[in-house]
Each structure stands twice: as C-alpha cells, then as structure tokens.
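Workshop exercise sheet. Pairs work together: one partner reads the sequence aloud, the other fills in the structure field after running the prediction. Swap roles for the next sheet.
Pair: D.N. / O.F.
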Amino acid sequence: MATITITEMLGSDNVAGSRITINENFKKVADAINTIENYLDTSFVPGAALNVGSALVKKYTRPITDQIFTCEATGLFGGNLNVSQDLGVTRDAVTGRHHTIHGNLVLDGTNAVGNKVTASIPFDVNAAFSSPQFYASATSNSLVIDPQTLTTPTTTSTTRNIVTTSTFPKTSVIRLNWSNYTGATTFNCDSIILPAVTDPNVTQGQILTVMVDNPAPSGTTGIDLSIDVTNLDSSYSSITFNTDPGVPADDARLRQAVITFVADTNGWRVLHAVGATVTIA
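Structure field:
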C-alpha cells in the first residue's frame, strides 16, 4: 500500500511564509485522492464503480462459511472463476461450453420440473459403454438377433416380430445386429416388435434390456432404428435409436444405445434408457 507523506507544519511557522509548503501538501493529498478515484469512482450514481487489478477480501478471524461479500446485480468474469469451497446456485446455471466434473454428479430432482434430465443434442457416454461387456455378444443369457432375418407381419413391412422361444423367459439381454442392413432394399428391417406381455413365454415383471450389438455397414444412412409401439404400454408413441438432428445408421454411437424394459400388465414399459441416439416419446 502506498504511503502519503506530507510536510508537517509547526505552530510557530509563519503561514504567509509557508504557503509553498501548504500548497505542496494539498497537492499530494489531491493527487492521492485522484489516484484512488481511478479505481473507486465515488461520483458514480447511485453507488461507486470499483476498478482494481487485484482484490483480496480477508475473512480475518471469521469462519470461512461466513458471507462477507454480496453483489445485488449481475457479475461478469472475463477470466476464470475458481471456487475452492462449495458453489451454490439458487436458480439456473447457463454454461456456454464444457463442464468438467471430477467428483459425483447428483441429480435429486428437488427443484426439477417433472424430475427430468433433457438434452437437445446427442451425447456420448464414454465410460461404461466403452467396455466390450456391453456391446460384444458375450453376456450370459443374451440373445443376438439379426433383424433382417425376422418374420415380417406383412410382405411390405419394414417392421419385424421378435419370435418367442421356450428360452425367452431366461433372456435378459437382446442384442440387435444391423450389420446386414443394406439401405438399398425397400423392406430392410428398421423396426422390431417385442413379444406381447401376454405371451406364455413372457413373465410378468420380466426385465429385458435391448441394445445395438452392431450398427449398419459403413455408408448406410437415412433410417430410424426403432422399437415398434406394438406391445408397449399405450403411453408410448415412439422409441427410436436414431433421430434428428441425424445419426447415420452406421454410426458407432448406436452401440452405446441401451433401453431396459419391464413386462407390465398393460405392455412393456421403459425402466431406463441411455445413449447418444435414444429418443422416447
């Protein structure tokens, strides 16, 4: 901190003869105040404008959790904001770029409308779904299906029925292999129908996970891989693995699309869905 030094005037000094010294003292004080005004503009109405290169707000002996600074208007940080303790946001947080979280992300839905997490753009899940355990046909009791070979409801339909077998109640995972989809044949399968929950080979309360084991060959585009609403709960209008803004049928992210269903009285219901391309309506 800069120190202002002025010349002391003694009581015995002649005022008329000390005018130069008095003027110099006033000038030093005025220059110091003007310097401060460059950083703290006290003429700013209704408050003051603060312009500093570096500011330190000390807590001294007060607890670190004490609130000792309040900003009633909007603040703007041109650089980074580093918070060493908790950051509390009572309303919306809008981020223009990335979030990097080194700990857990807890979404408890306390103030959420409908308790949902929504995303208008595709996203990649790179941790769990990078493991071959999820998209290589090795999981116990998994059923690998080539949708192109399934039986069609009609001769002109691109929708296929999953044929039930005596082993279906033991099946917990269905892997869809679209590697034979050509994109050129009119009736290539692009939609599958789960077995009816009333089928004797389906158990009420059964958990079934459907995932893409292999996407279509490279260069194949323009289709929506979907679960047909037939045999689903009537509340669903569509379940797709591939929708606008457009993920090609050969995109590897299709192998990160996973939907888990439960066999309910009124049809299959979604328990959980995750992946870059899963859309449920």
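Discussion prompt: Residues 241 and 278 are 5 Å apart (CA to CA). What would you look at next?
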